[in-house]
Amino acid sequence: MPNSPIRNLSRLQSSASTSRVLNLLTVWRHHRDDPEWIGQPLFLNAHLNRALIIKHRLRRDEFDLFRSRRQVATKVIIPVDPNDLKLGGRYVFVGQSNFKQVISQVFGASMPEEDLQTLRMIDDLPSLDPFLVREQLARHGRTPGRVYFELTEADRRRMFAFAQAEISPLVAMSMGSDARTADRAGVLVGKILSNADGEEMEPLRLTLRLAKEEYAEGVFCWKGFLYYKWSIASVMNDIGPVLAEISRLRPSGKVTPEDQAELTSAREVLCRRITRTLSKASATLKVYDDAYRQLTQNGQPTAFREFLLEAPHLFTRLGEQVGALQHIVSFWRYRVRGGLISPEEMHDIYADFVGSLAERDDVANAQAA
Fold first, then answer.
1. What's the rounded Cα separation, in Å, for the pair 40 and 53?
2. What backbone torsions phi and psi does residue 60 show, to the nearest 5 degrees?
3. CA angle, 116 then 124 then 49, to 5°
């Protein structure tokens, strides 16, 4: 129910991945005096602008909240006490039946139509990674402050070593390679991932040959590609076993020849879609790798600078591809661990996966046309 308590919010805040949680409560705590937070809010409603927004795998008893069948929904949680998350919170699913009425009950006030539209835009996305969310909103003329689009602390910790290795060639090029290269790269990564600014970042701006007004946007885009490259590396480690399980798993109970033929066809289509989407995402990241190599190996910052300034239009395609693949890995592991799967449910899962991948392909093709 919308007013039921949600437990473990503090654990969710400390360990959640960026792609799954948009933590506006943390943004409020860190930036509530920042002019960007005040002047360019993500949501007009004050409670909503301090909420936790989560991509949530629906449980069986939650399917009936929606008019159409779906596997994942966007959950908006309002903590009972923002200073004590152990008390839980109230929630609503974006797009559930009687959504406007329910969200008004949860918030205790009517919701601005602009906020409802923003929630629907976010709900349309396969993940909540900040680079994808930012571009989705920008396509619809929404430009919230950059303070809303940060990686979670948990993901900054998880990707630190990966980013440090990525940054080391730039540090070696700029300062020479020695025993301190890794430490210097670590310092630089910490600043990039935490959106640090100021005089200590001036050498990086000069190396990239970015004007001061271009620098913040350029580093934001660089962080985005570091995030996607790290995410793809993780997905590639996981997708092989998932594909193998999809190929060998058979439904429980009685299966008619017609059911078997449909499931076999759907399984083959799904495996091809997964492989193709992974290949396309890797090809997009190669564009980044080539530009970065021009900087670090050939000493040509112009190519990398131009790439960073043109990068945002790649976020939509790449973010949706990565998000769809992460959804498949995450949901498949969650559901298979849940036990037996009937032919009907297996068909629904395949249809959901194939449909999401096809939708991402259609978006990419429309943008490329």
1. 19
2. -60, -35
3. 40
Alpha-carbon distances, residue 318 vs 138, 256, 315 (angstroms): 16, 39, 5
DSSP labels, 286-343:
HHHHHHHHHHHTT--HHHHHHHHHHTHHHHHHHHHHHHHHHHHHHHHHHHHTT----H
Rounded to a whole number, what is the distance in angstroms from the first to the last CA of the chain? 44
Q: How far apart are CA 29 and CA 25, in angstroms?
A: 6
Instruction: Decide the pairing of beta strands 72-79 and 52-57.
Output: antiparallel
- Give φ, ψ of 78 to 5 degrees: -110, 110
CA distance 229 to 166: 10
Burial class (CB in 10 A: 0-12, 13-18, 19+), 307: buried
Per the CB < 8 A criterion, the answer to whether 195 and 150 are in contact is: yes
Structure token digits, residue 218: 């350029």
Place of tokens 């399984």: 267
Classify 250 in phi/psi space as left (phi over 0), alpha (psi -120 to 50) or beta: beta
Reported pTM: 0.78
Neighbours of 225 (CB within 10 A): 24
The H or E element containing residue 121 is helix 113-123
Cα separation, 319 vs 179, in Å, equals 36
Burial of 46 (0-12, 13-18, 19+ CB in 10 A): exposed
Write out the E strands in 62-180.
72-79, 89-93
Using alpha carbons only, what angle is made at residue 77 by residues 75 and 81, rounded to the nearest 5 degrees? Answer: 170
* Grouped pLDDT means (10 residues each) for the chain, 369 residues: 48 67 90 93 92 87 86 87 74 90 80 93 90 89 91 86 88 70 81 70 77 81 89 89 88 87 91 92 91 88 86 82 87 76 87 76 46
**Torsion of Cα atoms, 156 then 288 then 331 then 150, to 10°:** 30
